[in-house]
Amino acid sequence: MPDLPSAFLPLLLLSKFVTPVTFRHHRYDDLVRTLYKVHNQCPDITRLYSIGRSVKGRYLYVLEFSDYPGIHEPLEPEVKYVGNMHGNEVLGRELLLQLSEFLCEEFRNRNQRIVRLIQDTRIHILPSMNPDGYEVAAAQGPNTSGYLVGRNNANGVDLNRNFPDLNTYFYYNQKYGGPNHHLPLPDNWKSQVEPETRAVIQWIRSLNFVLSANMHGGAVVANYPYDKSLEHRFRSAHHTSKSPTPDDELFQTLAKVYSYAHGWMHQGWNCGDYFPDGITNGASWYSLSKGMQDFNYLHTNCFEITLELSCNKFPRQEELQREWLGNREALIQFLEQVHQGIKGMVLDENYNNLTGAVISVTGINHDVTSGEHGDYFRLLLPGTYSVTAKAPGYDPKTVTVTVGPAGPTLAVSYLLDGRKKMLTSNSSEARLRSA
């Protein structure tokens, strides 16, 4: 992934003169200046990079926060926020710009909660996945009636219906046997998706993301996978079909963390709909195919939920401050959830990293794999679990681990012998983290 495109380097020189983020809508050039400004104010803990370009050539910028920007530190989890996937659903875009400035300012102010978060977590923020659609919607403005104007990308494609459909393969494997994670992509997948989708897929394949949320508008609810039902029925008051993942309880908890930390999402009654606790299984609301959150779960180690954040897809400017205050705590609490569960290293007898080792939890039919540094992360609710590590050429090893109610992280390390013998395993580094 390239770092800052040279065409925009002059903006660095101007960024210190840019006015602070205010509660206003940001067109593309303004968004770029704002990201550069935040990076310039906090250069030691941020990196600004592009994952690709839109149909019309606009860069898809990501702002990273870390105590070592650009470097994956073993046992430090990766988390991401994605905004503005639908170009006319703009609140997430503005919240992520506000969040970027907030993280920078609070780190500089030595807010210990934010300092600890940035030191222990690598955070990636993509404010706009669909900058072309946004420009169309913004040109119309919030005062007209074109409800869908700008939703799609410049080729007229809905990006949240554009990812490879892996649900069908999973449902088949569930019935007849086959892998329950990291399902392969079709050979011709790149030709089947839009430039923005392709950029995001390559991005999430290049980093071992653990947790994610993507932000939408038109409702106020935290939506968790699966989005596609087994029957794939469309929304109907009489024909809904919940489609839970093997991690259904965990996903419900993640959704509730956001909902109950939000100013009013948890109340349930919003925008003429009622969602108990302010959460919903995607398929039980309405079924959609080729969505991004299901793709994350089935193709990578990443657990993603979808946040519907406003009744009005393009809120008026005077509403933005209230929306920020209503979402700020939820945005931080959700990031902190990436530390709930277990993590560890998988090494061979010579202490070399074992990439792609499979970590399975008894009773949960969804595995994760170790990354290129040999580290793995498995989000889990409090409880006691039987966890197995296995890799080709090695005997599997099972240990019992406990995740406590206050959110400890247990680092479970495995040392595997190439002669198919487990030499040692241990549980260590139990640390409580504030929620």
TrEMBL record:
Pfam families: CarboxypepD_reg, Peptidase_M14
Cofactor: Zn(2+)
Record flagged with keyword Metal-binding: yes
Active site per the UniProt annotation: E308
Molecular function terms from GO: carboxypeptidase activity
Keyword line: Carboxypeptidase, Glycoprotein, Hydrolase, Metal-binding, Metalloprotease, Protease, Signal, Zinc
Gene3D superfamilies: Carboxypeptidase-like, regulatory domain, Zn peptidases
Domain Peptidase M14: 24-338
Signal peptide extent: 1-23
Family: Belongs to the peptidase M14 family.
PANTHER family linked to this entry: CARBOXYPEPTIDASE N CATALYTIC CHAIN, PROTEASE M14 CARBOXYPEPTIDASE
Protein name: Carboxypeptidase N catalytic chain
Species of provenance: Apodemus speciosus (Large Japanese field mouse)
